[in-house]
Design goal:
alpha/beta, TIM Barrel, 14 helices, PI-PLC_domain
Amino acid sequence: MNQRLNTLVLPFVVSSCLSATIDDLPLNRYGMIMAHDAASGYLDPSGVIKGEVVDWTKTQSMPTKSAADLLDCGARSFDWRPYVKEGKLNAHHGDIEIEHEFEDSLDEIVNWCKANPSEMVIMHLWDCGSDGSGDCNALVQGVLDGRNLKAVNDCNALVNVTVGEAKALGAMEGGGILLPILPTLGDDGQGCSVANYDESIACWGGRNPFVGRGGEGGQQLDLILDCVERGGVELGKAYKGLREEERAKVEECRGKYPSDEEEGVLKARLKALFTYSCWDDSSTKETPLKQMTNYMDKVSKAGPGDAPFYQMQALWEESTASVVVGELHFSSLVEDEEKSKLNALTRDYIDSGRFPNINYIEVNNVCDGGVELKKSLDAFNENNVNTL
């Protein structure tokens, strides 16, 4: 009898012990915070680079000028862009060089990982550039090799990998988990990750000085705007805030200069050329926030594809037009995140169950609310395990 009872109970016990854990999640279904252009946090507006350039290049704040600051604030993934200048390996954001040596940054991250051995950190090393004085990829690989860090060079090696398997790949001698990704094969994104980049999701909107230089539709739009201005309507006002007679002037000007563009497209473009702001105290924040949530919903609904990672860029992008308007308001990328409370809003969206799928939540200014955002992602991941 006892033998039969043991036979019945044992499978139940084994089944309970084998219940799924976080480590069983596919890597592209595991929610993490990615620090956008992480190395830009080293930029100092009092340095050789002019303040207004820093305003629209610097995406992160580092209180102690260490990459470890971003990890303390909740980031677990880095968007890192190395650059070689005069033989020295630093970093860059676009055309702006960031003068902080890569090996020093790596040591900051390694030391944090060793002090926090249960936390997995992933470093996406991509957009490796050079002024011609050295091979960027080779120099990065050399620094990694010098610290016995095994980089993943083939994106295909990460397809269908689980969180637990990724931790094993990034396990360091002496403890800690750091997985550097330096793709030389199979990469058509940003370091084996699908970026889902959309530069139109900007904090600031206003009249684009370049509209009208590319095609008949743009030229017609410029004619309409010139007509509107001559009629006494200020383009610096929010479209929805125009008085009835001002809107009538806009419609009158549209009638004078008909366009072959689809009616809805022209109307949307016209509205977008009146200034709006994402700041929380702005009466016009609804416009950029709606654009942002539409984008987020689209990315989440699409979910993981075939790539090892994908990003939801929960950040305000910078375009020529948005920078022009933002600079007139003495703003910056870091301040736009803070004044719009975007990181906090993203956390609220996650807590509400709005997003069915999450992998990377890529943010600016992670030290503004990143710890709370990570807690929400941890809870999302725990709930996700229950679906396995």
